[in-house]
Specification:
3 copies of one chain form a homotrimer.
Chain A (H helix, E strand, L loop, with lengths): L4 E9 L5 E5 L4 E2 L3 H10 L3 E5 L1 H11 L13 E6 L8 H12 L13 H4 L3 E4 L2 E4 H14 L5 E5 L14 E2 L9 E3 L3 E3 L4 E2 L3 E3 L3 E3 L2 E2 L4 E2 L4 E2 L4 E2 L12 E2 L4 E2 L4 E2 L8 E2 L4 E2 L4 E5 L5 E6 L9 E5 L6 E5 L2 H12 L1
Chain lengths: 331, 331, 331
């Protein structure tokens, strides 16, 4: 029997008993061999509330770093998914988000159908997840009792850092990275940086701009302050946008097309799929203009807006000359 | 006797007894009939500190959802305003900000004169509002005692979500929405979104940019990441800027003029009042250029910067042709 | 014997005994006379852990406002630096960052060599600084015990406001200002504002954009929403960028060159060192274009991108005419 994913977690239940949040300290993707056998031996497929004692043998044997979870005085949840189907529950949604942030799955490789339907909008507070219909009373009681109760966000997605801080990253403001973001080793996210769920900075990266849902940022690429990468949810339409290696998107710049490797967009310039771009090779020969979407995914491009003529130009290097001719043929 | 507004609240007093913050769980605007009669029967005009018992009958009868407030072991404040005059106290300032965030008043409809004078700059912390002259000692004592004390902001305005989370909204980072913001049903504010006091997203809206003081954003309009809407405080001068319905201000774009309905500003383009704009109708006929301020409030406009010539253009649709002629006449 | 700096602080130690954070409520720079003598009388040069009692006489006599620190039931750290050498320890790094935020030193005047090596990446949480190798267990235990534990950032630098809130400032979101930022009297930082360590807003300033490491913003200058000032770490290369007095960098604009006094960059325009700029004087005479780096540090300049031609222009006033001729000569 195949095993897509397995995890034991600590759920947060609303007063009415609904699961509104779930923390999985040690999620597993595609476990194999003895580990997979142990899972199937001790847990049933699907989702079940279990007493901590029912997880003790498995965790002590296979995930001793998660042992503190066994001290809980309330039930845990065990989720065992045979395959990567559409999301069927809140716990399942949280499990898939954990897989991404634990670097067990890359963006756009998981079936996230149904995620919005199965994540409730919740108040994330200094007392944890609170169902919205309990919020006003909780706020009032906290005020009366003289202790402070802070509402940090009201969202379907919590912040990643409260669930997992992957190794080798820096995060200036954790409220800007949702659970489900994938931050590779060596990723630094500055105060202007933001990474959505199902989006990645593969690392090392300096992220001072917006990495939208669906976007993957390649090794060594930097996203300048407030720079924008359109995602599938944010205007990029059907094309999933990725940025290759060693790219630089300047401050206040943006792209609506995928970029290959070693591409640069100068500070302040926004390239959309429909931007008409003049191509200039290393010898100064001009071709085009072409629509930027025709350059999607190409490497070694430098995009600027000429400061005397206002023309958007793409400087291409030798390797790209063949490309130019090909593009010219398209024209 | 007219009644503009009434509310019973929980004030935060500094050590020296000054009101630095006030929480009104159930503010009322223009109450009528039996409700208004009960208010005038039980409370005096103006502002008064009252024991919780003095509010018990009224709250139990008319605002039972606010009953937890009666458990306070310290005085409440009752504010009864006959008319919408200039702000005369901190509690009054907080009451008006609550009216906006409770969706009881739209931006630019309340008299906010004096609001800056009557709101102290306060440290908003994980222990609530703290007067600045007490802060350093509080921070030191917390460190000594080994508990953490977080200063979240130092501002005249607190974050809205600690007072009221209106129905049907999502807020990625509550620190970016001040009390006094009006968030209509269906408003989502992403990490880059920010809404000032006396500003509105009427909902449904996707807000990933800045909604400045005084700005009202109409139904169905989206503000892209880091997009900027100049407000009366932020460079827009005397004109209050509003955005109509079904508009799209692209990522990293901005406007210094009000927009009508169904207008689009392409990503990365900033339109100020003085921007000279060429007008192009559906048949490709050019008129203008006109200064963007002459287009203020018009509908069905698409603003772009031509990527080959650097010219800022406004594409207008059929309905707008008559408009063009009118504008041309102005020129 | 010279004394560069002295301070007594409360360190945070990781479980393994490493100093990961240090709070100095009353740092001193270049103390003189009796104060300096008292320091050398009672403390040894270098860095030492001391019992609170060993600091009692000094603090009671010279820094009574720091007396609450003496109530600590654990050792304090005393740091006495004879000169401004390279940073040699975590406590020393924190001391220098405090000097900047306490307005005792301006950016670019301290020797910060070694600061990255001596600041560990730490989880800054609602329970204070936590070493990363302890974090996962702490998070799990907090969940099990049903109390909330919030990871606010994961960074080498903590937020300034948890150490010092200088007089006369407003800070909309404290997570965007690192310890080591210098905020002068009258500085307001809005939600889009961010100020790095070793960067200053001398005040009064309205900061809604990014003030990068190394940048100094002069009196009366405003930085619009999401505006960008390149720093030595963020693309500005070797030139340290400063902004003079009474400048305005518009919303979504940016600069990669230093500006003199009374300069304006219009909203949405990004000037980099290599931008070719046409110069236009008050009589409409054109010179240039020149590269923007030739205008570095000049006063009374207005930068725009012409909305009909896309040309980047710099309007200079009468005082600047001589300048223009000089620039023209360079060309």
């Amino acid at each position: 029997m195949p095993t897509f994913a397995f995890a034991i977690g600590l759920p947060t239940l609303s007063r009415s008993g609904t699961c509104i949040d779930c923390f999985f300290p040690a999620p597993l993707k595609a476990p194999e061999g003895a580990l997979e056998a142990a899972i199937h031996d001790q847990f049933a497929p699907g989702e079940a509330m279990i007493e901590p004692d029912a997880a003790r043998a498995f965790i002590n044997a296979h995930q001793p770093h998660a042992a503190p979870m066994l001290e809980a005085d309330r039930p845990l949840v065990a989720v065992l998914l045979a395959k990567d189907g559409p999301i069927g529950s809140t716990a399942e949604a949280f499990l898939k988000l954990h897989l991404l942030s634990h670097r067990l799955a890359l963006p756009n490789t998981l079936n996230l159908d149904g995620i919005f339907a199965h994540l409730q909008t919740v108040a994330w507070t200094t007392e944890g997840a609170v169902a919205l219909d309990e919020l006003a009373t909780r706020q009032m009681r906290a005020r009366v009792q003289g202790h402070h109760f802070e509402v940090l966000s009201v969202d379907k997605f919590p912040k990643m850092a409260n669930y997992i801080v992957p190794s080798g990253v820096r995060i200036a403001d954790s409220s800007r990275i949702r659970l489900g973001a994938y931050l590779g080793e060596g990723t630094t996210v500055m105060p202007y940086g933001a990474i959505n769920f199902n989006a990645a900075a593969l690392g090392p990266n300096m992220v001072e701009g917006r990495v939208s849902q669906g976007v993957v940022l390649g090794h060594g690429s930097d996203i300048g302050g407030s720079a924008s990468i359109m995602g599938t949810l944010a205007g990029g339409g059907e094309i999933v946008i990725s940025i290759g290696r060693q790219c630089l998107i300047g401050a206040n710049a943006g792209t609506g097309i995928p970029l290959g490797d070693r591409c640069t967009i100068e500070a302040g310039l926004y390239i959309t799929a429909g931007t008409r771009v003049a191509l200039i090779d290393e010898d100064g020969n001009r071709t085009g203009p072409v629509k930027a979407r025709e350059l999607a995914g190409r490497s070694d491009l430098l995009f600027i807006r000429h400061s005397e003529t206002g023309e958007v130009q793409c400087r291409v290097n030798r390797k790209a000359i063949a490309l130019n001719e090909q593009l010219h043929a398209h024209n």
